[in-house]
Amino acid sequence: MPHLLDEKNVDMLEKHGVFSRSELESRCEVMLENYCKTICIEARTMRSMVIKRIAPAVESYTAELSANLNEKKRAIPDLECCFEKEIITELSMRTDRIYSGVQRMVSVLDSLSDEDYFRDAEVIRDKLLPEMSRLREDSDAAEKLTSKKYWPLPNYGLLLFGEK
């Protein structure tokens, strides 16, 4: 969007009487404001979903696995319980990364000015969207390991094909 204001584009559009420079500046600012606000809404929604639904679901499943591990070890002390140990370790690592990712994402959101949309759009592109992408990767990885019984959101199979 900012390239709309490149001198060659402004000259061409003014030359043909399509837009004046001030009209282009206004259009660009409105588009950037809309972009910034939309992405910020998505980021805040993502934060809410992760903190209120995904992390608690993963933690509940991890707690169940831990209880199962302890019960098995109490009954038969020499059991390895590799499944439980690996899943607990991986999910714990993922929830730590999810929590850190949310903190970084909120920090970026807090740094936005809500006034200079050109600057905010660059911060969103360079910092916020990569954080959101990493958060999505960790959440998706946690979903693959978390029991369906605990997962609070519909999966792709359910959304696309109505699978139960």
What does this structure look like?
- This protein has 164 residues and is mainly alpha-helical.
- The chain has a single domain, classed as Four Helix Bundle (Hemerythrin (Met), subunit A) (Up-down Bundle), CATH 1.20.120.1560.
- 79% of the residues lie in helices and 0% in strands.
- The two termini are 43 Å apart.
Work out the helix count.
5
The biggest sheet amounts to: none
- The overall number of domains is 1
The proportion of residues in beta strands is under 5%
Helix content: over 70%
Q: Average pLDDT value?
A: 94
Structural class: mainly alpha
Gross CATH architecture: Up-down Bundle
Assigned CATH class: Mainly Alpha
Order of helices and strands: HHHHH
Query: In angstroms, what is the radius of gyration?
Result: 23 Å
- Number of E-type strands: 0
Named CATH topology? Four Helix Bundle (Hemerythrin (Met), subunit A)
N/C terminus separation:
43 Å
- In terms of per-residue confidence, which ranges show pLDDT below 50 for 5 or more consecutive residues? none
Net shape: elongated
Q: In short, what is this structure?
A:
The chain is mainly α and 164 residues long. The protein is 79% helix and 0% strand. The longest helix has 55 residues, at 21-75.
